[in-house]
Structures are given as C-alpha cells and as structure tokens.
Amino acid sequence: MNQxxxxxxxxxxxxxxxxxxxxxxxxxxxxxxxxxxxxxxxxAGLAPAKALELVPDGxxxxxxxxxxxxxxxxxxxxxxxxxxxxxxxxxxKTGESHNWHQADVTPPTPAERAAMQRHMQAxxxxxxxxxxxxxxxxxxxxxxxxxxxxxxxxxHPYLERKRINAIGIRRLRDxxxxxxxxxxxxxxxxxxxxADGAKRFLTGGRIAGCYFAMGxxxxxxxxxxxxxxxxxxxxxxxxxxxxxxxxxxLSAVARALRAKFPAVRIVVCADDDSRTPGNPxxxxxxxxxxxxxxxxxxxxxxxxxxx
Length: 307
Prior knowledge:
Layout: H1 3-6, E1 10-11, H2 15-18, H3 34-43, E2 61-63, E3 75-80, E4 86-91, E5 97-101, H4 110-148, E6 150-151, H5 157-162, E7 170-172, E8 175-181, E9 187-193, E10 199-201, E11 212-214, E12 220-224, H6 227-237, E13 240-243, H7 250-260, E14 265-269, H8 280-291, E15 295-297
Parallel strand pairs: 1-5, 12-13, 12-14, 14-15
Antiparallel strand pairs: 2-3, 3-4, 4-5, 6-7, 7-8, 8-9, 9-10, 11-13
Helix pairs in contact: 7-8
C-alpha cells in the first residue's frame, strides 16, 4: 500500500505516527493542534512546502504543496475546532480531497456530529466556489496564451532530442504549449515544455480528467502519460493517442474516454518506473486499464527516453 492509498478516505493520525512527521513542515515551536493534520497531509503526498501553522477558524486557506513550483498555491485546507478538531485538505492541481478528524478524542454526541456535518458542508460549498473561480481564471489565461502562440514546427530542441514531430501543439517563444482539454473539447490548462525539457503547468488549471488528443479513434485508442511518448506511439502506429500528462490522471482520463467512445478498444501504455518504489507508472496504468475494461501495454523505446 502506497502513501496515497493510506491516506484515502477519512485520515486519522495515531499518536505514535505523529512522532514521525517531517519536522521540516512544522514551525519551530509546533502547536500540538497542527501535528495530526500535518501528518495526514504528509501521508497523502500533500505536505506543505514550508512551515505552516494551521488555523482552526473554519476558513478555506491555500498553501504551496511540497514539489509544486515556487509561488503556486494549489493546496488548500479548512480546519474547525468545534465541536471537535476536524477538517479537510486537498489539491486543486490534482483534484483530490481528503477529510480528516482527530482520532484520540471522546466520540462526539449526535448534536456535535450534526454540527460537524454542517461545518463540513459549508466548507465544501466554499471550496467549490473557490475552485470554480481559480479554474475559471486559468481557463481564460490558457485561451489567451493559446491564441498568442503559433503552430510549432519540428525545429525545437526538445522535439529534436526526442526525435518526434510537433503534432497539434504550439510554440510561444522557446516554450512548447500542450493543451489539456476535457472530453467536450474545452481548454482548461496548458503544459509548457522548455528547450531543456523542463515541464510545468499553468497555475490553478484543472488537470484531472483532461488530456491532449492526437488523431480520431477508429478501433483502438492509446492512452499514455507524456507528450513525447504519445507522439512516438502515434507516429509508429497511426493510432489515436490521448496524453494524460501524469500517471495519477490515467484513470480519470480513461473513464472520460470510455464515456465518449464506448466501443473503442482502449490500450493504456505504461511508463515502467521500475526504479521508483511501487512502480507508480505501471501500477496506475494497470488500474486505469481495469477501470474501463481496457488493455495494458508497456512500450519499449530504443535509444531515446520518452515522457
């Protein structure tokens, strides 16, 4: 079981586990109130990038997730102190959310439980409103940048190094722009790829369930993680390809594609992360294939790394 699976559903942090919380994410003189929920964030892979004092005031607050680019605030949390310490946290970047409550307390009374439920419903409503606002701003910016950009040619260092073609993508200065659209074709965000291969997404954009499509499906549709892999597969097979951008998005995209193309044979092409504990590329690809009654493949590329 990986850390994400441990954190699924309602997260509880036992006292013994709290002692192992990464002290780098807790302020120098930690408030005991912060420790359990910070530990839960860490288990879910959503630890704050720097010291964070959680404020139990019931307000929706944002923070930068460890590993996200500097200046971004894709992480969010809300924490209530009454009738018991409880809250939720998640990421607008991945679309995930987790509920949490303090485990080592007297069980709440029915009235307290009802109050907790009201607090969480109010927080959920506020979260949806804020998420819609953030996503809307990102959509508008993505459309603006996409219009400013020009169709990319194969004369780009990243494409030349990967030995792939520019297929339906654009270029703005030295950056390649890969559009991420939902199944209805709405542009939600952009992935930027620099000449050195560095990748990043537009801040605040929706990624969950969005993908980049190459070609129109006939009998088969290949689903993979990265643009380079997708372009290579499309060039080699002539099949339609959907790029999910990361392994955590494979299942969501697979379900969206299955709903849009119910009769198409979906083949999930895994990145074999054999050197990474748990091999997330292969594990998530297998989950995605099972979720839609699809097939699993592990492509092998000679001489050039893809992604």
